[in-house]
Amino acid sequence: MFKFGLKLWSINDNYVKDALRLFNEGVYQYIELYVKPGSYEKFIGLWKNLPIPYVIHAPHFRDGMNLAKRENEAKNLTLIQEAQRFADQLKADKLIVHPGIAGDIKETARQLKLINDKRILIENKPYYALDDNLVCNGTTPEEIKLVMDEAGVGLCLDIGHAACSARAHSVYYLDYLKQFMMLAPKMFHLADGDVNNLTDDHRHIGEGNFDFRQILAIIHDNAMVTIEVNKSSKENLNDFIKDVKMIKAIKGVA
């Protein structure tokens, strides 16, 4: 079976009690922690005290990081440095970054080569961003491969993002996923969605029309799979438990 990841933000102290309980019960195997800028000093101690493995996710476009723009380089370096501090303190060996928006994929590769952190995984994106119909960088297997080759980084394959990009490029999404799989992803993001949508909406498993029997068959056993869906409650993680159970049921695992 997969190694499941729980996606949380670095400021999500409201979920800590439930997160620890579910980890101890074996519901998931690691936390993927998205770094909200400026949260290190206040929150690093909280996460460091938990006996849980971590993957770190650097800030993205909505929090001011855009690797595809040369004029953003100084700010990008400041933001990635905070994410690296989280990764250092939490002993994370994976650090996920987005390729950027409305810029140049070659600039993304240049900046990642400058950062030179072997923990970095580039995450593929939908063609259209959620913000003002801007076009994302890193939406195709070719663009992602360019970054991987130039900067020496790995891949976090986001299933929903790939499906949205496939729709924009008029390619069948399962065929598109197989093309990305040829890049040997180190881990995955998983959510349900609508194969006819151009933007990702992070639905709970079973609430969209993705063919999960075929999708899960593509992902190898023991893969790290972060369930990246919207949370229904600010008090508990019951919806996360249901998503894990849904995936196990589709895989035929008790």
UniProtKB/TrEMBL annotation:
The keyword Iron-sulfur does not apply. InterPro entries: IolE/XylAMocC-like, Xyl_isomerase-like_sf, Xyl_isomerase-like_TIM-brl. Pfam families: AP_endonuc_2 (PF01261). Residues 39-248 form the Xylose isomerase-like TIM barrel domain. It comes from the Bacteria. Keywords: Endonuclease, Hydrolase, Nuclease. One of its GO terms (molecular function) is endonuclease activity. PANTHER family: HYDROXYPYRUVATE ISOMERASE, XYLOSE ISOMERASE-LIKE TIM BARREL DOMAIN-CONTAINING PROTEIN. This is AP endonuclease.
